[in-house]
Amino acid sequence: QVQLVESGGGLVQAGGSLRLSCAASGIIFSGYSMSWYRQEPGKQRELVAIITSGRSTNYADSVKGQFTISRDNAKNTVYLQMSSLKPEDTADYYCNAHSQFRDYWGQGTQVNVSS
Description:
11 strands, four-stranded antiparallel beta sheet, 115 residues, mainly beta, globular
């Protein structure tokens, strides 16, 4: 059974930092592209950052220079380091594992940035 379990969300003041983690099981982790998405209430889910199996990364324009995605294949875990957080970064953050034939999602973790 595939599981993606996010952690690390919470309440933080503007300007602060958080590191989200997503631990995967039930998949050959190294073969998957891993992404972080976020969703605000009433809005569509948007891609925040992606790291491929080859460790290439890409970011939404809104978080470039602010967020860093990384992966540890030995731990089957992908991370999202978020710095200089702003109230507009408040959202539910979701982990995604993508291969040519499969897409898996975590249950999400909430990030709340207070001004």
